Amino acid sequence: MSSEKWNACDVLHGILSKMNGPKIPASIPILHNAFHALAQETQFHPFFDDYLFQKRIGFFFSEKMQDYLENMEMAKLLSCGNPAFETYEIKDKLKKSFDEYVRQNFSEQENELLGRAAEEFANKISKEHAA
Amino acid sequence: MILGEPFIVNGNTISGEGSGYDSLSQLRIEIDQFVAQFLPETGSTQKIGPKVVHDGLWGTLRLEPYEVALLDTPLVQRLRHLRQTGLSFLTYPSTTHSRFEHTLGVVLQVMKLGDALLRPALEPKKDDGRLTQDHVRQMRLAALLHDIGHGPFSHTSEMVYGDAPSLKEFKKKHPKANPHETMANLILTSEPFRKYFREAMQKGKEQNHNIEEIANTIVGDVNNENPYVTELLNGPFDADKLDYIFRDSHFSGLPLDVDLDRLWYTVRLGKTKKEGDVDDHLVVLQGGVTALEQVFFSKMVLTATVYQHHKVRACDCMFAGIIEYMREHGKTMEIRDKHLAFHSPADFLWITDDEFLSYGFRTDDDQLHELIHNLYFRRLLKRALIISCPTVNVEEEGALDNFNRLLNTHEDAHLRREISREIWEKAGRPGMKEQVFLDMPKRPKFVAADETYIYHAEPSDTATNKPITLNDLIKVDSWAKQYMEHRYRGHVFCPPEHRATVAKAAIEVLQERFDIKFKPEAYQWCKVALPS
Q: What mean pLDDT is predicted for residues A74-100?
């Protein structure tokens, strides 16, 4: 199902835009571990071809994912506020920009799968958070 | 032809199978050839004894004969001729220190960290021999060899050859490996090196070190049996970082300090908080937290002030422009009977900084002569446009996702060059096309704060101890991220005399491509007035 129309950033953009809650934890270990766990699921494999995960002390880490998160933050699609820096707020702008510019890069089937990935990502974040 | 594409040299396409650019197996062959020429003859280690070296920063270091046998190879000696911080000396004149000096500094820092951990007085309740002198000796060897994969101007050339598919193929199996570390790994695992290494180790009693493990340490692969050994050289606060932070800040004249005595005093072996974790790692007692914060803070300041200073980035682009010109026009540099076309990453190993710069005097190609001389005589490209949060109007309706997409071009050299060409065309082709650059630097990551564990009491005191990460204590990664966001600058560089036309063209091209609107500060801060 891999496509030349979308790239690795579009995948993360899509997953974040399809998540229900406006906030996710800004912790690197929690987010990256959850994303890594998502990448291990066979149904989502095509979305993760370009992601490499480093094994750090106690968590997995994807440089690419972190780059994208930081760039989205600089572009005000995400915000991680002072002083606590504990959560990323997914801005309406992120969802709007996905719908306007990125969504069309995915087929209907892929969009549906992204929705499932978003749901699963949220579950995995909750599990990581609890651990 | 653009950086990152297949190359055509003298009518032949240098890409696909058969080139070290594309194929990892071919890159190994090319590196074998390089290593064979940069090692002494077999039997040459017979008269080697110990050596005492004085480092201007850390003082005296004694090297054992088996270490000297490696140190004295042309393979390691060439590091004397590679500047540690690339072309930054054209901005900070005293940063002429070499990779060789840094290498010795890292050996010394490994020893200091090792000594700190091996001193039983530090952890009187539990001296169970987890870390041994043999481990430290192996990591000293890894330190001695960790930078031998660098090319001219260190990270400057790495930015050019790092995109090679052959290196990306390697990275799939070793996700932490940077391009120069991959090159070091391939050098160490080459047949000629393995053979020389076996001979060198015979210079030390019972020195039975494993070159495979050393090569894996350098690319960040953790030894699952004793990860703390790897962490001496490649971990959250390793010997490499401790040396370069001190050395680079000292030589750039930017006084930064880390309380190393306190850090050494408080470093221990301990387990992380992860449930079921049985591994020992390097951890720090609470008293060392300030020293750790200093390590992270210094790295952050050095990145913003030295490594990503706009003039340093302009020099990096000028170097890339020279390579691009050579690739496109089928030019080579003749060094030691080699015709270096710089397609394969292995080509960069054959040449040192001064050989590269002095080629400007030898070439009969006028344009290549000019491009190299512009670096040699410091006729630098200048900023025409600044791309950063304060200069881009991200709140503008319609800007939406686009600034994000522009920022993401940091990972696509090919796209950046395509855009640069478009800007050059739109500006009416000022100067050479290799002199107009869209530069979007990659920001460093501060993940280490999430993997550095702090103990409130000795790790052996298991009753009350609950280790937490440095990030649990203070959000180092977040404030570093905020700082880097604030200091982040992308640029469009060009020859000084064409700044106004290039700025105007860049604004138009970036607006067309990304629907981005720039504030006047974007060019005014470059002291540019747009043509009417």
A: 87
The first and second tokens of residue B344, run together, are 């394969």
pLDDT per position as a tens digit, B141-196 = 999 999 999 999 999 999 999 999 999 999 999 999 999 999 999 999 999 999 99
Tell me whether residue B352 is in a domain.
no
Residues B98 and B237 in one domain: yes
Place B440 in a pLDDT band, splitting at 50, 70 and 90.
very high
Let me know if residue B10 belongs to a domain: no
A29: which chain B residues are within 8 Å (Cβ-Cβ)? 450
> Is residue B463 included in any domain, yes or no?
no
The reply to whether B401 touches chain A by the CB within 8 Å rule is: yes
CB B454 within 8 A of CB B283: yes
Contact B481 A9 (CB under 8 A): no
B355 found inside a domain: no
Residue B32 · residue B192 · CB < 8 Å:
yes
pLDDT given for residue A84 in this prediction: 76
At residue B270, φ and ψ (nearest 5 deg) are -160, 170
Of B209, B240, B255, which residue constitutes the final position of a domain?
Answer: B255
The answer to whether the beta carbons of residues B289 and B470 sit under 8 Å apart is yes
Shortest Cα distance from B175 to chain A (angstroms)?
Answer: 5
Report how far residue B60's alpha carbon sits from residue B53's, in angstroms, rounded to the nearest whole number: 6
Q: Are B143 and B106 in contact (CB under 8 A)?
A: yes
Tell me what pLDDT residue B396 has: 63
Which candidate in A63, A64, A71 is best for mutational testing of the B interface (most B CBs within 10 A)? A71
pLDDT value at position B275? 60
How many pairs of residues across A and B have Cβ atoms under 8 Å apart?
Answer: 97
Q: Do B222 and A55 touch (CB under 8 A)?
A: yes
- Domain hosting B431: range is 382-443+488-532
Q: What is the dihedral of CA B325, B330, B334, B340, to 10 degrees?
A: 80
For residue B407, give the nearest of A28, A75, A101 by CB distance: A75
- B394–A80: do the CB atoms touch at under 8 Å? no
d(CA B319, CA B327): 13
Q: Residues B35-70: pLDDT tens digits?
A: 999 998 777 777 788 999 999 999 999 999 999 999
Report the domain count for chain B: 2
Segments making up each domain of chain A, as ranges:
8-130
Closest Cβ–Cβ partner in A58, A73, A97 for B400: A97
B451 near A CB under 8 A: yes
Instruction: Return mean pLDDT, chain B.
Output: 90
| Nearest CA-CA distance, residue B114 and chain A, Å | 20
Residue finishing a domain among B255, B270, B287 = B255
The whole-angstrom separation of Cα B313 and Cα B496 is: 15
> B81 at the A interface (CB within 8 A)?
no
Q: What's the average model confidence in pLDDT over B414-427? A: 97
A-facing residues of B in 411-450 (CB < 8 A) are 411, 442-443, 445, 447, 450
Q: In this structure, what are the phi and psi dihedrals at residue B49, rounded to the nearest 5 degrees?
A: -120, -170
By C-alpha distance, the chain A residue nearest B395 is A76
CATH code where residue B186 lies: 1.10.3210.10
Tell whether B277 lies on the interface with A, counting CB pairs under 8 A: yes
pLDDT digits (tens, 9 = 90+) for B316-326: 999 999 999 99
Interface predicted TM-score (ipTM): 0.92
Residue pair B156/B319 in contact by the 8 Å Cβ criterion: yes
Residue B125 has pLDDT above 70, yes or no: no
Place of tokens 């979305």: A47
Residue range B342-365, pLDDT digits in tens: 999 999 999 999 999 999 999 999
- Set of chain A residues whose Cβ sits within 8 Å of the Cβ of B405: 9
